[in-house]
Structure formats: C-alpha cells, structure tokens
Amino acid sequence: MKPLVVIAALLAALGLAACKPEPGVAEKAGKAIDQAAAEATKKAEEAAKAAAGVAKEAGDKAGALAEKAGEKVDAAAQATAAAAKDAADQVKAATEAPKK
Questions:
Q1: How confident is the model at residue 21 (pLDDT cuts 50, 70, 90)?
Q2: DSSP letter for each residue of 6-56
C-alpha cells in the first residue's frame, strides 16, 4: 500500500507542476509577436495621421493655387473685354470719321 501512496503523491506533484509551466520558447515568441504587432499598429496609425496631415496641406495649397489661377483668368478676361471695347470704339470712330 505504501508504493501506491508514493505513486499517488508523485502523480499529484507532477500534476501540480504541469499546471504552472515555466514560460517556454513558444510563449516568449508569442509575447514578442504580440508586442511587435502592437508597435506596428501604433506606427501605422501615426503614419496614417501624418499622411492625412500632408494630404490636407496639399489640398489647401491646391485650393489656394486654384483661387489664384481663377483670379488671373478673371483679370485676363477683364483685360480682353477692355481691349475688345477699345478696338470696337476705334473701329466705330474710324468708320464714322469719313462721314463727317
């Protein structure tokens, strides 16, 4: 009966030891992978924020350039209209001059 008690005690000790194993290579690798994934996610979020800032800045600059271009087109249209009016006035004056 003593060998049976000794065997039972050894099995119980082995069972308790198996419940809380020391961290092994696989567990350490898993933690390293989790940490790397968390860091990569953080860096990706930071990169996305930076890219959004750059895109907004580029959009603002493009808007300002478009506005300046529009102003130049308006100025050119006004100058063209003024030149056309002057030309029309000159033609009118030239055609009416011989009549006098």
A1: low
A2: HHHHHHHHHHHHHHSPPP-HHHHHHHHHHHHHHHHHHHHHHHHHHHHHHHH
